[in-house]
Inverse folding.
């Protein structure tokens, strides 16, 4: 049930001079709305018709709730604020994320190669407990027979080609493992990509430590 029942179109605030029944109903609507942070799928401001008096008001936008018509990654919390110097007032997405620890730690990839491995998809949806993971925190362990500046293990969000958005782990000493924790963004299907650049024996392992989802 949506709780946008106060200071929205057709549901005004209580005013001095209201009959008891009218005032009580409006006050009750205000309490329900405050407790639910304007919970619903429509903009409670009516598309920006509020004034600066409403700055700081929270709205839990249910548009993308699980099995809803949106992106299915969960609802989002928004705050009413000044958005430009004009000023223009409106709701801004707070972009909150929930951290979900994976316990016990789950191994999602391990292997060894003596040649380059092109970027390859890896799907972690079977290792999470929801269908709305946005990013994963990985522990990557690598070991190489011939470490060097051009020898590394890499991960990136599926479909990303910008080099600056690729995360790399470099083995440091011949035959000795190196571990590093890296966060990688996931696509809508909870997929990221991995690759190996090497010219000699190179061993690798990825464990999933935790993942982030929309709070």
């Amino acid at each position: 049930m949506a709780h946008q029942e106060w200071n929205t179109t057709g549901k005004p605030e209580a005013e001095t001079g209201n009959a008891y029944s009218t005032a009580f109903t409006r006050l009750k609507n205000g309490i329900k709305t405050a407790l639910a942070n304007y919970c619903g799928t429509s903009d409670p401001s009516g598309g920006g018709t509020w004034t600066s008096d409403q700055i700081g008001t929270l709205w839990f936008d249910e548009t993308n709730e699980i099995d809803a018509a949106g992106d299915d990654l969960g609802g989002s919390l928004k705050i009413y604020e000044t958005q430009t110097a004009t000023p223009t007032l409106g709701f801004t997405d707070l972009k909150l994320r929930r951290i979900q620890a994976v316990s016990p730690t789950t191994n999602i990839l391990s292997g060894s190669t003596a040649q380059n491995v092109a970027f390859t998809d890896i799907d972690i949806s079977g290792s999470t407990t929801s269908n709305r993971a946005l990013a994963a925190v990985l522990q990557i362990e690598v070991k190489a027979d011939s470490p060097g500046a051009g020898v590394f293990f890499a991960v990136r969000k599926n479909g990303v080609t910008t080099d600056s958005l690729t995360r790399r782990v470099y083995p440091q000493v011949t035959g000795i493992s190196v571990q590093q924790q890296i966060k990688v963004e996931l696509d809508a299907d909870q997929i990221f990509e991995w690759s190996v650049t090497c010219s000699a024996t190179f061993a690798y392992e990825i464990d999933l430590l935790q993942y982030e989802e929309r709070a």
Observations:
- The chain has two domains: 20-93, 97-214.
- Residues 20-93 form one domain.
- Residues 20-36 form the longest helix (17 residues).
